[in-house]
Amino acid sequence: MAVNDNAMFKILEKKMLNPTICKMVVEAPRIAKSALPGQFLIVRADEPGERIPLTISDYDRAAGTVTIVIQPIGASTRSMVDAFQAGDSFADVAGPLGNPSEFVRMSPEELKAQRVVFIAGGLGTAPVYPQAKWLHEHGVSVDVIIGARTKDLLIYEDEFKSVCDNLYMCTDDGSYGFKGVGTARLEALVAEGKTYTQAVAIGPMIMMKFSVLTCKKLGIPIWVSMNTLMVDGTGMCGACRLSVGGVTKFACVDGPEFDGYLVDFDEAMRRSAQYKAEEGLANGK
Amino acid sequence: MANRIPRVPVREQDPKVRAHNFEEVCFGYNEEEARLEASRCLHCKNPRCVSACPVAIKIPDFIERIVAGDFAGAAAKIAEDSSLPAVCGRVCPQETQCEGSCVLGVKFEPVAIGKLERFVADWTFAQTSATGCPSSTVSLRETPPSQVAGPLPLSMPRVAAVSEGQPVGGSSPKRKVAIIGSGPAGLACAYDLAKMGYDVTIFEALHKAGGVLEYGIPEFRLPKDKILKREIQDVIAAGVKIETDVIIGRTVTIDSLMDQEGFEAVFVGTGAGLPKFMGIPGENLNGVFSANEFLTRNNLMKAFRDDYRTPIHAGKKVCVVGGGNVAMDAARTALRLGADTTIVYRRTEVELPARKEEVHHAKEEGIDFQMLTNPVEIMGDERGWVRALKCVRMELGEPDESGRRSPVVIPGSEFEIPTETVIMALGTSPNPLISRTTPGLEVTRRGGLVADECGATTRPGVFAGGDAVTGAATVILAMGAGRKAAAAIDAYLKSK
Q: SS3 of B95, please?
């Protein structure tokens, strides 16, 4: 709207992390000041664009910037990656939305007792970074398992090296690191004698579903970050509703992180595909 | 009664045509029609219409000016009490307020006060569009050209108010007030405070200002660029700043606004944005939407336009559950997106809480009304999509606490309405984000902020009004609350 145009949200840095995933550092001083691990943003690139929820991958309070990582899946994310370069600005960046990760709310004693393992998949690798970094800075033991289909699709390896105790890279095809999925790596680690008090899975819903099944088997509690459909991101529309322990919750205000044991993933995956037909049309627009 | 001129009918788009477009339904009066309709006013000594108006617009006075052809004078008269006449003329429930109290309405049809208000506002817009500056005879004397800097003023009477709002001498810095939410309550409060000379900033969570006027009310009832945007520009012209994309409680808190950013008072006008669902089986099936989601996609995100990317799903058959204005808006939007649409409501047509005009328009456009009908389950297909709405028939029993006869289920009356989409328009409740993140702010059992008549909350310096306090109500009641709070904030700051 032409009313009192806000300072635009300038893209200071753009980098392709692999052939499809793009990282952007965006100027958003108010958000950078209040962001915490686990929270997300809503980005609307331009006037015709959708409001897209994107997890915060990093923030720099002093520089007044937030980092987002984008993978084109629909018309709007495609346009964000293809049409926006460093120096351009997004029309809107709103946040930080959702609740910070449980860890942030723990007392120092509770934190000290934690031995955390993250299972990161695909785009979900990026939002694991601020959580691992935060825990590492608070002296918590952190292991990170990053999985991708093949070597070219792995992201954030260098960034993670300095924020965790152990980093385990996995590829489905064995082109790099452990051959197999992240959950298989976790099972192998536990078999080797590793123990964890808490797992956190962030990635595609199907991957989080299987992470929960594995953790149930291993007896490890697990949190998952639910990347549902959203419009406003503030509790207004209810597009993000999901069943947690048989109760309807809104991912935007009640989450985005939930106890993985309680999430109805099949319903969540079905609901995520709700606009597939219409999105096909938008892609053709 | 001397007045025998029948109420002047208003020109509208043909229902068959408008059922396929998002253009405004009502064309409004032209000058001749407005003057004729205005001449019907009896100018009662004690005008009941004024006391029935939540912002107490001096109705007979502005109508008198219309009769005389002094439309700018009429606009100035309305502007004394309302910052959003083009909006209110379109969306107020006049039949229960001003027009509902019109003496003419006892024996004949009441004066079309809403349509006259709208005429005055639209006339003012037309003057500024045509010439780039107001051609009216009023107000120029009040506004030296030097003060009309920057964007061209869109409404003279209201721009004139800017000069009144400047602090005398101009040396002392203006005191800062934060308004949370740019809906009707926030806009009205901000407008009044700016006129009093305060430095006012509105914080809006969404990317566009207007609140429910932007995301909730559809284009065919309230055109966004033509009307709403201009009315908001008038508030800005009065000196109000609007910062979008700021979610109070997340991006910044009320504490940080007051402690770090120098705001001495805060008005919370965050509305009632949380959608309600029925709690019946099948509500998480694909194809079940809150009216908020459906309307936000269509209005704020402009999903109905091919050049916007946000998708919307209606399908061939839509059932809307509820009987308020939001239900009518959702149903008429679905119809325009090409769906055969049914409204399902558990009471009778008499109890429909929607404006009469909206019900009338919806019927003209071909929407099917299933009254005394209540959903009990949403039936899905094997893919998890809606296939039918299972309902029961109701009959009216004894009156409940609201005075309305409560509906009672007729045993064995279950039946299914085949449908692709179900839209829940059951009302909304206040968003808890602010109350949860602001120490000292108490809420009622229903989630509304606790506030006194003037809007003072349980936290000194923090005021609230509109749906955030009362739960979902009307645009004009929210504006009235915003105005009262503005006066209370002024008194509070002067005594501080």
A: helix
Measure the CA–CA gap between B261 and B253, rounded to whole angstroms.
Answer: 11
Number of H helices and number of E strands within chain B? 19, 16
Residue count of chain A, please give it.
Answer: 285
Q: Which residues of B are less than 8 Å from A79 in CB distance?
A: 309
Cβ of A6 within 8 Å of Cβ of B245? The answer is yes
CA of A40 vs chain B CAs: smallest distance (Å) = 11
How would residue A117 be classed by pLDDT, with cut points 50, 70 and 90?
Answer: very high
Give the residue among A40, A52, A41, A47 at the shortest CA–CA distance from A78. A52
Residue of B207, B252, B312 with shortest CB distance to A91: B207
Provide the edge-to-edge strand list for the sheet that holds B462-464: B241-243, B199-203, B176-180, B263-268, B462-464
Q: How far is CA A68 from the centre of its chain?
A: 9
Please name the residue of chain A whose CA is at the shortest distance from the CA of residue B201: A4
Pairing of strands A247-250, A257-259: unpaired
Query: B261: which 2 tokens?
Result: 């950013």
* Residue showing tokens 């609007």: B242
Q: Are B221 and B22 in contact (CB under 8 A)?
A: no
User: According to DSSP H, which parts of A84-223 are helical?
Assistant: 108-112, 125-137, 157-161, 182-191, 205-218
Of B208, B247, B302, Cβ closest to residue A234: B247
Torsion-angle region of A201 (φ positive above 0: left; ψ -120 to 50: alpha; else: beta): beta
Q: How many CB atoms lie within 10 A of CB B145?
A: 8
Q: Please, which pLDDT band fits residue B89 given cuts at 50, 70 and 90?
A: very high
> Cα-flanking dihedrals φ and ψ of residue B462, to 5°?
-110, 125
Could you give the C-alpha distances from B138 to B59, B73, B158, B179, B251, in angstroms and in order?
19, 7, 11, 31, 43
pLDDT in tens, B114-165: 999 999 999 999 987 655 444 333 333 333 333 333 333 333 333 333 334 4
- ipTM for the predicted complex comes to 0.93
Q: d(Cα B456, Cα B485) in Å, to the nearest integer? A: 7
Q: Please give, rounded to a whole number of angstroms, the shortest distance from the CA of B317 to a CA of chain A.
A: 16
Instruction: Look at residue B3 in the predicted model and tell me its pLDDT.
Output: 59
Which among A3, A49, A76 is the nearest to B233, CB-wise?
A3
Nearest CA in chain A to B310: A50
Residue B445 CA to residue B133 CA, distance in Å, equals 50
Q: Tell me how close the Cα of B309 comes to any Cα of chain A, in angstroms.
A: 5
Q: Chain B: give the shortest CA distance to residue A47, in Å.
A: 8
Local structure of residue B219 (DSSP, 8 states): T
Alpha-carbon dihedral A157, A158, A162, A163, rounded to 10 degrees:
-40
Q: In this structure, how many other beta carbons lie within 10 angstroms of the beta carbon of residue B106?
A: 9
Q: Give the nearest chain B residue to A232 (CA atoms).
A: B206
Residue B12 burial (C-beta neighbours within 10 Å; 0-12, 13-18, 19+): middle
Burial of B464 (0-12, 13-18, 19+ CB in 10 A): buried
Count Cα atoms within 13 angstroms, Cβ side, for B147.
Answer: 18
For the record, the structure tokens of B236 come out as: 């800005």
Note whether A93 and A26 are within 8 A (CB): yes
Are the Cβ atoms of A4 and B246 closer than 8 angstroms? no
Residue that has been written with the tokens 């009778």 in this structure:
B348
